[in-house]
Specification:
By secondary structure, the chain is an alpha/beta fold. The chain has four helices and eight strands, in the order βββαβαβαβαββ. It has an eight-stranded mixed β-sheet, with helices on one face. It starts with a strand and ends with a strand. About 40% of the residues are buried.
Length: about 140
Amino acid sequence: MTLVFKARRVFGKDAEGVALISTPLSPLGDIDPESGVVKARDSPAYGERLAGRVLVMRYMKGSTVGTYVLYALGRRGAAPRAIVVERPDPVLVSGCVLGGITLAYGVEQGFFEVVRSGMRIRVSVSTQSVSILDF
């Protein structure tokens, strides 16, 4: 069974990958800009690589330098395929645009309550939705 959740907005390109759930991260300090490994010890994603994953968290925190960290991750091939958040901020939006990372935000109620790390996620630009595959 596939669960489909409408998003307020999805931009980038269609993306699919394995979910990586995290508490809010700051790109500057919580993510290694070279490898894309989560360095925040208080995150359930600590030690995990972002590359090829769909990063799911309620929001991103941090300063304007975070935009450039996301851009660098995209250039190095170390970025997640997509980021799904409840609410975006200008740093996250600009970082995803520059880094070529698909971003979905404002996902329908219930998504953040049922999604778990390891679940296969599809983010669709054409349907403006986020799906949990094989639920």
